[in-house]
Amino acid sequence: MALRYFPMTLPRSFRAIAALIGLSAGVRAAEFSPAIVYDMGGKFDRSFNQSAYNGAEKFKKDTGIAYREFEVTNAAQREQAFTQFARRGATIIVGTGFTQASAIEKVAKQFPNVKFAIIDAVVDLPNVLSINFREQESSFLCGMAAALVSKTGKIGFVGGMDIPLIRKFGLGYAEGAKYVNSSMEVFQNMTGTTPAAWNDPTKGAELAKSQFGRGADVVFHAAGGTGLGVMQAAKDAGLLSIGCDSNQNYIHPGSVLTSAVKRVDNAVYKVFTDAKNGTWKGGQIYLGLAEQGVDFALDENNRKLITPEIEAKLDAAKADIIAGKIKVTEYKAQ
Amino acid sequence: MSAPRKLPRWAELGLLPLVNLLAALILSGVVVKILGESPWAACKLMLAGSLGTQDGIGYTLYYATNFMFTGLAVAVAYHAGLFNIGGEGQAYIGGLGSGLVALWLGDRAPFAVVLPCAILGSASFGAAWAFIPAWLQARRGSHIVITTIMFNFIGAALMTYLLVNVLIKPGQQSPETREFGAGAFMPLASDVLAKVGITFAATPLNFAFVLALLAAVLVWVLVWRTRWGYAIRVAGQNQSAAVYAGISPPRIIVQAMLLSGALAGCLGLNELLGAQHRILIDCPGGAGFVGIAVALMGRNHPVGIFLAAVLFGALAQGGSQLSFDMPKINRDMVVVIQGLVILFCGALENMFRVPLAAMLSPFAKKQKPAA
User: Fold this and answer.
1) Which DSSP string corresponds to B144-187?
2) Is A29-133+265-287 in CATH node 3.20.20.150?
3) Exposure string (b/e) for B133-159, b if CB count within 10 Å is 16 or more?
4) Do A29-133+265-287 and A136-261+304-323 agree at the fold level?
């Protein structure tokens, strides 16, 4: 009978399984094992996903704990990725992007003992931490900065895909510009209607050029990889652009006015660290200017563009937003 | 036949695709090696991940279901001499059709009622989306390749508008509808098999797989066993002969494209009613384009399309397992492997035909030469 082979094969296959789920030596029963699932943009989009990647890398550097990762290419893979990580003993799994919400909701119900975190969406379960940013606040400051440096009184905005999140950026930006000068003209364009709109630098450049042609001299992008084309077009035309999500001032120093920074990296880092230290809690958190979750970027690359007067005005507005004196409208899907 | 030398039928249908596949895999192995991973281990991972586990099989067949619908769509049009590149858009709009039915009836009717309505919804919406390019081709001579490609974008724009402004579930970021009512859920393979006492891993594989097989049979019967199918094939191969035989090519163009669009539209049954249970942005996820490769590789025959769809399903599923377990092989690498398979099986298929025919000629001589 095959039974007599069991004593020999069992330890070996057990070891293989143990190695597979990361238990390796098997001294500690449940080792801390974080994981992250990037969305369609890919982890090297120099923007949103990459910011999450930077946070995870920083965690790895500081603690020496390796993390697992997966880049999604189609809708069905989301659920699959979360299920596999959960099954293979991940302690905490972060999903970047609102598109992951339904997958996390499904998998989190199946694995109530695994911790989940989602960025840019709300999943109302006890083992899920929902992290949202108030992008409209940083967009407001960027709109102000654009209006303060604009000589033509016209500025532009290039969004990626036309979805509520991107309208949120656009609305905050326009409000910021109008706060400085109510006659400011703001051109808004969306790159496309398919997810390819996040990664189409050629079209981004064309849209930026058309806005320049209509008289704009500063253009803000919220378009992931497409934004690189927007920024290149601004540099080629000798005009200004504003970066998004990550600090993109370094991409074309002297041509990037500032960046609407969204500290996804800090959020990921904090989620991993809290989970490791046992201080992790489910629920919802909102990160705005007050929590330093969003901000405008100021470094040596754009120091010359943001004069002390502009900086003072931006800082004053920032304080007013934090104090609640300026109310920035949040775009809400109806 | 345009083939330089004729191969025996078994070699044409069995050996040649296998040799092509092998060549693609060897070249992929070289790329994997360059990236610093073991090609052998990668190959094993891909196979085990796609066909070696219940999980893998479930996902492979689930992807294959999508590819079968779109592959059949391309094949039907191809037999009528049309190159339908609009499978993506037709599948997207077809998804809207099945999704609307599911949203409307899911809460108030049992599955037995929802299913025929959903099939009707997806097929009619998909067919409607194919109708305009078909009409333009038939009556105005606008080239179908160009118009169907453009209709992919128009379809995407329409769907984005509807999902962002009209159908979105209020109070959320993600442009998707609310979840369908339970009456609109396709029975999952794991649930159905559990009822007869077989445990199968929970995967999105669902009843739509059976529907895809039925669609393949239907296409076979329609194209090869009916007068209408004969008319399609005649019009596809020689329009003048068709006119001489009393067949109206414009009418055939429209009819074939309607069927093609309807087949592509049925993707929504698998993707939305089977797996996602809501209408979401970009739900075909490129399956419309994969369908072109599937049809080419499957020689536009339902059996071939089934096999090619399973192969591409296995590549999609095995590829995602590969990037899961070998971090150096990212998703772009998986696309490279898939691309190589398409290149060797589609574009370069004549490369091995000549040497293969030479090798096999001693055997071929014994056969009676074909008339």
Assistant:
1) HHHHHHHHHHHHHHHHHHIIIIISSPTT-SS-B-PPPPGGGPPP
2) no
3) bbbbbbeeeeebeebbeebbebbbebb
4) yes
Q: Are the beta carbons of B316 and A74 separated by less than 8 Å?
A: yes
Q: Is the pLDDT of residue A281 over 60?
A: yes
- CATH superfamily for A136-261+304-323 is Response regulator (3.40.50.2300)
For residue A326, the SS3 value is coil
What percent of chain B is modeled with pLDDT above 90?
Answer: 60
Q: What pTM was computed for the model?
A: 0.82
Tokens found for residue B229: 């199918």
Number of domains in chain B: 1
Instruction: Report the chain B residue with the minimal C-alpha distance to residue A191.
Output: B157
Tell me, what's the ipTM?
0.76
Q: Is the pLDDT of residue B242 over 50?
A: yes
The domain spans of chain A are: 29-133+265-287, 136-261+304-323
User: Based on the number of CB atoms within 10 Å of its own CB, is B39 exposed (0-12), middle (13-18) or buried (19 or more)?
Assistant: middle
On whether any CB of chain A is under 8 Å from the CB of B70, the answer is: no
Domain of residue B285 covers 67-299
More confident: B235 or B357: B235
Chain B residue with CA closest to A193: the answer is B157
Chain B CB contacts of A106 under 8 Å are none
Closest CA–CA distance from residue B356 to any residue of chain A (Å): 37
For residue A129, the surrounding DSSP H or E stretch is strand A128-133
Q: Do A81 and B168 touch (CB under 8 A)?
A: no
> Are A164 and B286 a contacting pair at CB < 8 A?
no
pLDDT of residue B210: 96
Residues 311-330 of B with CB under 8 A from A: 316, 320, 323-324, 327, 330
Domain annotation covers residue B47: no
Examine the pLDDT at B224 and tell me if it is beyond 90.
yes
Is position B31 within any domain? no
